[in-house]
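Practice problem: predict the structure.
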Amino acid sequence: MRLLQIRHGQTPHNVAGALDTAFPGDGLTPLGLTQAAAVPAALADERIGAVYASPLVRTQLTAAPLAEARGLTIDVRPGLEEVSAGDLELRTDTDAVGTYAETLISWMRGDLGRRMPGGENGHDFLARYDAAIRTLAERHGPDDTIVVVGHGAAMRVHTALRAGLDPRTSVELEVMNTGLGLLEGDPDRGWQLVRWRSEPLGGAHLADDGAQDVTGESAEDAVDEQSS
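Answer:
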């Protein structure tokens, strides 16, 4: 199976640098809507069999143009939510952002027992995310291509651990709004990372270099910013 994971479009909290992970979450900015509108053309050559999104509003708004262009219904799936910020929810300070990033790094390096303050640990995250992906895989054949519109930190951690990336590569992963990660395989045989696009699918001109995008930037950069 080909699993196209696309990060949602830009939200106001992405611009402000807030750790927005709880339901229902923010909507999209005007740029976020433009990013979402550019996705169908960027994926014109893909034979997409289904479009899935997390329960958070921003992923469904991002998925809407693609689903409409393909005549598909957005299938909302619990378990695909962002890595919970727990007690750090909606904070923008460097201590909170650094702690969130350090926790992600710990998971990517194999310390799944570390817990986000007031939130989930790595085992919790992988259990619910893997279960959601397995449910999707069971609905599709080995040659199918599906789209999952999800979240930056969740995409990075899942890809790092399930595609077997080395820790150095893992902590350097970043994904801007509507960036993409393409995995091939299945939950039983494992996944291979075929493509990682950090920039928006519609092109680099849709990136917002002025945004404080804390859940999309690399975990290493977030930690470095805390210490600087």
